[in-house]
Amino acid sequence: MRQIRTDLWETHTDAPFPGLTTHAYLWTRPERNVLLYSPATEVDFAAIEELGGIGYQYLSHKHEAGPLLARIADQFRSQLHAPAAELGQIGRYAHIDVSLANRHVDSNGLEIIPTPGHTPGSTCYLLAGVEDETYLFTGDTTYVGDDGRWTTYLVSDSDPAALRSSLELLGTLHPDIVITSASRSETGMHRLGSRRWSDCIAEALASVPGEN
């Protein structure tokens, strides 16, 4: 585990495909901790226990689902939150405690933002960190490519028109830190600094087929 903010920890780097890395992120709180995305192995379980365990796990889309979901729920007695549009695929691996369908701020302080396009159920999460920073978790809706530009990628059930609309919605937000599920580097965390998020979104929009 690597601490990346006062209240945020990044799990061990997983590499599901050559050139692609993934992480999960533990948001530590005075209340029960929140895990966003999902790791691929149990290598960080002991460290997570020392940090207070997991109260709630949130998935951004079905590609994060796998056999480890049930292991996490059993080990930490955590509740799984997952996109309503993908309950069938995710539910094959673990019981889903809370299905997410509409934009709202939930009781754990996360703003749930449905962003279909990469997959039908893709969902982003916005939350306030303890250092007066806003974290945006984008899943695979957008990420930074090899050239350093924000981009997207499509899979068999992607919807380019829906993805464009979702990106435009994300462009109305004002995050300080954006955290992707997949990455081309050793971390999925991107601190915007002086860079405008709207410019990042414009780059991502340009990568969607049919945009121009």
Short description:
Helix content is 19%, strand content 29%.
Any overview of this molecule?
Helices cover 19% and strands 29% of the residues. The protein is α+β, with helices and mostly antiparallel strands. It has a single domain (2-206), classed as Ribonuclease Z/Hydroxyacylglutathione hydrolase-like (Metallo-beta-lactamase, Chain A). The strands form four sheets. The protein has a seven-stranded mixed sheet with strand order 1-2-5-6-7-8-9, with no helix packed on it. It has a six-stranded mixed sheet with strand order 10-11-12-13-16-18, with no helix packed on it. A three-stranded antiparallel sheet has the order 3-4-17, with no helix packed on it. Strand 1 and strand 2 form a beta hairpin.
Number of strands: 18
User: How many H/I helical runs?
Assistant: 5
CATH fold description? Metallo-beta-lactamase, Chain A
Q: Gap between N and C termini, in Å?
A: 41 Å
Give the strand content: 25-35%
The residue-averaged pLDDT reads 94
Overall tally of domains: 1
Low-confidence stretches: none
Overall 3D form = globular
Name the helix and strand elements from N-terminus to C-terminus, one letter apiece: EEEEEEHEHEHEEEEEEEHEEEH
Q: Provide the helix percentage.
A: 10-25%
Q: Within the largest sheet, what's the order of strands?
A: 1-2-5-6-7-8-9
CATH architecture annotation: 4-Layer Sandwich
Compute the CA-based radius of gyration: 16 Å
Helix and strand composition category: alpha+beta
Q: How would a crystallographer describe the biggest sheet?
A: 7 strands, mixed
The CATH class: Alpha Beta
Kindly report the name of the CATH homologous superfamily. Ribonuclease Z/Hydroxyacylglutathione hydrolase-like
